[in-house]
Design brief:
Structural class: mainly alpha
Order of helices and strands: HHHHH
């Protein structure tokens, strides 16, 4: 059985952290930046932080003994993978982070879809 909320929370934290920190790492290591990260860095960082907040809120609600700590660890590991191995591909987090956050919140709150 797959815990979809767990996976969505990990994705929201990981992609949000990757998105919020990509500009700094790209400048430091001379990686290419997308137009959004070059022209609107605060907006991009805010989107990343909002996605992270939704995943962290879910992890805190779940509690450390029920997987909350593991969600945070796996989210950080996803961010390291996304930034370290994908580099330019890490810019896809601009689309994936808010998507994961919205789907997490909709599924968590039990909002009927359709």
């Amino acid at each position: 059985m797959v815990d979809h909320l767990f996976v969505l929370a990990v994705a929201a934290i990981g992609w949000g952290l990757a998105l919020a920190s990509y500009r700094e790492l790209a400048q430091r290591f001379d990686w290419p930046m997308g137009v959004a990260q070059a022209t609107a860095p605060l907006t991009v960082a805010a989107i990343g932080l909002a996605a992270m907040a939704s995943g962290l809120l879910f992890a805190m609600t779940r509690g450390p003994l029920n997987g909350g700590f593991v969600i945070m660890i796996f989210g950080a590991a996803l961010a390291v993978f996304w930034l370290g191995f994908l580099r330019v591909g890490a810019q896809t987090a601009l689309l994936l982070a808010p998507l994961a956050a919205v789907v997490l919140l909709v599924a968590w709150l039990g909002v009927p879809v359709g």
